[in-house]
């Protein structure tokens, strides 16, 4: 079964601290569902550090996590964090 989680219920309109994202993933790991959809509706901003933490925790999660309704600002920050992550891993120039 797939579970949809609306991030606005956990973060308000901005996700700003690495610790908040870490706590969110700690609680997410306690859910029984293996497939999770994170709905970014009404999330206006994610900080660079949160985007980094999000990617690290998503990649290390035992859950299958997908995103929906992510605005362009959030997409851009996640992409920036992913690019830096790849550079740190020596994957891209």
Q: What does this entry look like structurally?
A:
The protein has 93 residues and is an alpha/beta fold. The chain has one domain (2-88): 2-Layer Sandwich (Transcription Regulator spoIIAA). The protein has four helices and five strands. The strands form two sheets. It has a three-stranded parallel sheet. It has a two-stranded parallel sheet with strand order 2-4. α2 packs parallel to α3 (48-60). The longest helix has 17 residues, at 72-88.
Total number of strands = 5
Major sheet size, sense and barrel closure: 3 strands, parallel
Helix content: 40-55%
Query: What structural category do the secondary elements indicate?
Result: alpha/beta
Mean pLDDT, to the nearest integer, reads 93
Strand residue content: 15-25%
CATH homology group: STAS domain
List the helices and strands and how they pair.
Elements: E1 2-6, H1 8-11, E2 14-15, H2 18-28, E3 35-39, E4 45-46, H3 48-60, E5 64-68, H4 72-88
Parallel strand pairs: 1-3, 2-4, 3-5
Helix pairs in contact: 2-3, 3-4
